[in-house]
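Need tokens for this chain, all 129 residues.
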Amino acid sequence: MEHVDDPDRAFSLRMTTWQWRHLDGAVDSEVSVAAESGDPHQVVQTGSGVREAGWDQIAHWTPGVAGSGNWPTDDEEVAVKLSRRQWEVAAQCAAHWAAVASSVGHEQEAAMLRSVHALVVDGLHAESA
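Here are the structure tokens for all 129 residues:
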């Protein structure tokens, strides 16, 4: 039987494309920094999986196929299915890059990432209940 806190258990969260794109950007930044610094927290593989899931599920991107995939409009609501471990990494990335954005005066970006972080954390808590 699958335990609700199983890190491999997958579930979907709904958000706008705009929110996903900000989350994707935070994960991308985290993966890039981790790859350059030797991946001390083991986020490259999981973070890359988060990004690839979004490309596949939202934009319907096919690796190696030029011109495949289009992002829906920013206000369109989308559902993304990730493992609990992937959602946890995504939440950590959103929180980290919200703090970075705030520290350099990019308050709109920080606010967006904080709201996406809250959405993901709420989803994680709801799946644990």
